[in-house]
Amino acid sequence: MYEDIVLGIANQAVLTVLLVSAPILGAALITGLLISILQATTQIQEMTLVFVPKIVIVLIVLLIFGPWMLNVVTTFTINLYSAIPQMVGL
User: Fold this and answer.
1) Is the pLDDT of residue 58 over 80?
2) Within a 13 Å sphere around the CA of 69, how many CA atoms are in the beta-carbon half?
């Protein structure tokens, strides 16, 4: 019975992490792909060309999605803490 509770919490935690990290990882992936296509077409093979645009895009995505990410993590934490009495009572 305790295994079900632990697996449920772990499942919610993994889902929360995936949900929160998806916008940042998606933006970085798309930015890297677009810059790689640009580098392949222009034959500019500078390795540091990818980093600055990725950092700028990730910062912009954090500014846009930051409040939503904080809300998702806060909701998960509040739900977890509010469920502690029911878990201990079992």
Assistant:
1) yes
2) 14
